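Supplementary Note 3. Input sequence used for the single-chain structure prediction.
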Amino acid sequence: MTLTSGLSEAAQKEEEELTLRIAALEVKRQELTSGLFHVHQTMRSLQSRIAQIKNETAPISCLPSDVLEIIFDESRRVLFPWSGFRRPLPIEVQLSHVCRRWRQVALNTPSLWNTLRVPILHRENAIKAYLYRCNQCPLSVHLGPQLSDRRIMDVITSVLIPRIGQFRELILDTQDRQELYSLLSHLVNTAAPCLQRLKITSSDPARGQGSYPPIEIFKQGAPLLSDVRLSALPITLPQAAVSTLHFDPLPGPVIPLPRSHLLSIITPVASSLTVLYLKGFVSGFHEEPGSAPVVLPALRELVVHGHAMIHGFNVFRNISAPSLRFFTLFSLKRQALSPIHKFMTRTSPDQFRSLRSLHYIDCEMDDDLDIYLPHATSGLTHLSVSLGSHTHLMRLLSNSDKQAALHRTKPLWPRLRTLTFHVASPWSQDRDDVESDEEDELPPAIALLLDVIQLRKTVGTELELLRLEGPHARAFHDELTLALIKSQLQVNIDVLPGLSPDNDSQLLSSGDWAYSGLFYGSQYRTHLYRKMQSGSHGQHHLHWGSVPRGPGSSLSP
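The predicted structure, written as discrete structure tokens, is reproduced below.
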């Protein structure tokens, strides 16, 4: 028995009428809701059109698409430090989200999507999207750090390695040797016909002990390879006209690269090599007696770090550079620097006749410097020295100029026109330890530099430019300027306060192609460290690629 069965006929009729009215109102409500949604959509469309009309009148909207493409491409070169706990979206993704036209221009610019940093910025979906958008453009690929997750390696081997024929630039920056050699094993029997720049490094301070096994890569050829940056690893390169070669130190325990391995890498590219950086540890105690050095006839620039010398490696017993023009010595001890000076003076005038720039950065200068060094490098036009290690060299220069002025003879380094001082240590203008009657006395470094400037002018070889570099260059410049005014001397001065000669990474300028890889690798490691520090009780919630065997997630641009 239902509740309505007891109603009267009139009540039942009224109930049916009310039910019909409710149903009609429900239909009307749905119609009004649909109409309201349509009104909202129309309003948003009209507002979007108004914004589009306003945007079209903005000066930037008047730029042709090809100009926007250039601006977009240049914007990728700007490097911003990361902040917070979230990784930033790549700049090309941000640009494609600004407005409809920008997105259209961005998506139709293949070169904007040709850089992949795995897993720093890109995951599996993003990798596939980038490869689709860049089409057949040459690729710049940065792999690492933290590649132990199996899914990352699967993506690399199944998606990226098959496209290695498009690689123009490749950076391998791994956390440990197992990751590195797992990657290198995929490059052994491959060809890289477009590869021009290659960097291979490993940051394994914990498990990096012991020597690394030799490995040969790109056996099927990499004919365009011209710029190679290696950690101290015994890697055999393919036959190519390599012009730039860097050897960087491995972090953690000192693992010197055997001298024989170093020479086996240099020898095949000896005829084409123009730039050589020796910054990694090299073992040289077991040199073969009477062995001839490898001749590098085209070498123009040589950088030698103290790391390369502390295990007995002697540079000029192993290589010969008759056409050297730029020579930089970084953080060398006195016992390592003295043999280099003796070799330079002993081989004059056959060697170093073409040398134009000589740079001493944070080196311990010889006490027994003599005039034979300037005689051996008489064509020098640019000399650099760190403040605090400059005394012997500047006194040699000033004393020789005094003799030249006295006897009216030709001065040493007659072509020297540029002098650079690296100011790494704090330079205080207020010297509280000086008595009041001695406040006008110049600091020894300033006084010696003024003597050099004055004497260079006296002997007719006036300095054209004085460069001050380093984080404390500005303070030194301020006091030097006052001293120049008081002494009525003039010299053009450039101040570069951002350069820090204490950090050997500054040997890599921000315009260098490998600098961005160094920057992103450093930012990513700092990002991981922040996330680990933020975890409670050692529970670190990182995305895949951050720690080995981590949980997976994806990011699509």
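The mean pLDDT is 83. Residues 9-57 form the longest helix (49 residues).
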